[in-house]
Design brief:
Blueprint: H1 5-14, E1 25-27, E2 34-40, E3 43-49, H2 52-55, H3 60-76, E4 93-95, E5 98-104, E6 109-110, H4 118-132, H5 150-159, H6 163-189, E7 195-197, E8 206-209, E9 212-215, E10 222-224, H7 226-237, H8 247-261, H9 268-274, H10 277-289, H11 297-319, H12 321-328
Antiparallel strand pairs: 1-2, 2-3, 3-5, 4-5, 6-8, 7-10, 8-9
Helix pairs in contact: 4-7, 4-8, 5-6, 6-9, 7-8, 10-11
């Protein structure tokens, strides 16, 4: 990674943070961007260095601006979120060829999947229900299903001689195409509804302070279908990421959510089949692993690891589908 020391010093000057007490350190913080801790005369901060490959996308900056607007709506509504700081009316800052967000440093801890219990799920289900109840400018017709060109990616893996990705897609390409068709068909059957969607409120993106949750990483805020997102997050908090399936956590999440939002209106099978979260993450990471959307070898290897992980989640979710539908029914 490039030496960012001069950049951090410029950030401190630009944002009037005072002198840096020590060399900023890299911290864990998701799988798309890079996070650093800055300790300065004015306090401690988390700096999110945005992935330049993401920002190359034609709609990326528009999406970030929309997320910033929605973030403000959540904060103004009193939801427990950690919002990016503003400087001269701007949240996303650009300096020395880098785009970044700056946040107040939060002394909190993200739970591990093994630590998640029903009472945590009830709190998150309530937060999500409150968020979904906020006024929303979008219309249901604005939501479009995603289209992943799996055969084309398989051909690209073959052309680039990326053996791990090629073997994975060769084995599962038919399944992925079938899942995509099922997703499109199910999306057409969903009852029309739209909400402010978090997009990424999984276990790692909630910090806990004295038993109270704070939601971080809000740049994926968008508009989505409320019940579909509810199911997706309930599955995450119940163990879909780990193979350790906890039905009590799932029930607690759904019961907390529906206590505020009312009973689920859609058929369980329609809701489940309309979700595309794991295929979407798989698609993005296959492109990173192939070097299509990767800025360096470190990110390419991360893409490979996450693609293999996402494929395992696709397979596991199919394995527990009947159990999930029974719980929803």
């Amino acid at each position: 990674m490039d030496d960012l020391t001069p950049f951090f010093a410029q950030v401190a000057k630009l944002c009037h943070l005072g002198a840096l007490y020590c060399e900023p350190c890299r911290i864990s913080g998701g799988f798309m961007h890079r996070m650093f801790r800055l300790d300065t005369e004015s306090g401690s901060y988390a700096l999110k260095l945005l992935n330049p490959e993401i920002l190359k996308r034609p709609d990326a900056r528009r999406n970030y601006r929309r997320a910033e607007k929605l973030e403000k709506q959540l904060r103004d509504a009193g939801l427990p979120v950690v919002a990016a700081l503003e400087f001269d009316g701007k949240k996303m800052l650009s300096l020395a060829g880098h785009d970044f967000y700056l946040f107040p440093w939060i002394e909190g801890k993200a739970l591990t999947p093994a630590e998640v219990e029903p009472h945590h799920c009830r709190r998150i289900g309530e937060i999500l229900a409150r968020q979904h109840s906020l006024p929303c400018e979008a219309r249901p017709g604005d939501l479009q299903p995603l289209d992943f060109q799996w055969p084309a990616l398989l051909e690209e893996a073959h052309r680039r001689k990326n053996i791990p990705i090629e073997e994975m897609l060769e084995e599962h390409c038919d399944l992925l195409c079938r899942i995509q068709q099922e997703t499109h068909d199910a999306a057409k059957r969903l009852s029309p509804a739209v909400c402010i969607s978090n997009g990424d409120m999984d276990i790692k993106n909630v910090l806990w302070q004295n038993g109270n949750p704070l939601v971080i990483d809000l740049e994926c805020l968008d508009h989505g279908h409320p019940e579909r997102e509810m199911l997706m997050l309930a599955l995450m908090w119940a163990g879909l990421e780990t193979d350790v399936w906890k039905p009590d956590n799932f029930r607690a999440f759904v019961e907390s959510y529906t206590a505020l939002r009312g009973a689920v209106r859609n058929e369980p099978a329609v809701l489940f089949d309309s979700m595309d979260v794991w295929p979407e993450w798989l698609h993005y990471n296959v492109k990173r692993a192939l070097g299509i959307e990767a800025q360096d070898e470190e990110e390419r290897l991360l893409g490979l690891k996450q693609a293999q992980f996402a494929m395992s989640r696709v397979l596991f979710s199919r394995k527990v589908r009947a159990q999930i539908l029974a719980l929803l029914g």
